[in-house]
Amino acid sequence: MLNAFDFLILFLASFRLTRFIVYDTITSFIRKPFHEMIEEQLPDGTIQTFIKVKGTGWKYWIGELLSCYWCTGIWSSAVLYIGYLVLSSVFTPIIVILAIAGCAALVEVIVEKLLS
């Protein structure tokens, strides 16, 4: 069983890894084979971007997974937790780095809200 501190670290690491996979520009190359970006001009003149999942079968399934924060979050959490249990010496530094980055992301959102 996890203690509260380990749970918190895994929680933050999973949060950051999931956002990294689903939203970050730097990982768009992972999503590109599975997603098509469609831009539409709205009546007020702004441009809104939509994701269309490409392909069928496994390609479509992976595309759906990569476009769903909740789905990717389950798999990210599972990989980190199992890695933590099975290969702790390899996964612990990765988990800690992701957790620190997750904290930084949350602090940035809070500061941005306070300043706006």
Using the CA coordinates, give the radius of gyration: 17 Å
SSE order: HHEEHHH
Spatial gap, N to C terminus: 41 Å
Mean pLDDT: 94
Low-confidence stretches: none
Please state the structural category.
Answer: alpha+beta
Find the count of extended strands (DSSP E, 2+ residues).
2
Overall 3D shape: flat
If helices are DSSP runs of H or I spanning 4 or more residues, what is the number of helices?
5
Determine the strand fraction and express it as a percent band: 5-15%
Number of domains as seen in the coordinates: 1
Q: Portion of residues in helices?
A: 55-70%
Strand order, main sheet: write it out: 1-2
How is the biggest beta sheet arranged?
2 strands, antiparallel
Description:
The chain is α+β, with helices and mostly antiparallel strands. The protein has one domain (4-110). It has helices at residues 4-22, 28-31, 57-67, 69-86, 88-115; strands at residues 35-41, 47-53. A two-stranded antiparallel sheet has the order 1-2. The chain is flat and about 50 Å long.
What's a quick, concise take on this entry?
Pfam families: DUF1360. The chain has 116 residues and is an alpha+beta fold.
How are the secondary structure elements laid out?
Blueprint (H helix, E strand, L loop, with lengths): L3 H19 L5 H4 L3 E7 L5 E7 L3 H11 L1 H18 L1 H28 L1
Antiparallel strand pairs: 1-2
Key terms:
2 strands, 12% strand, flat, Mycophage_PG1_Gp7, transmembrane, two-stranded antiparallel ribbon, alpha+beta, transmembrane helix, membrane, 116 residues
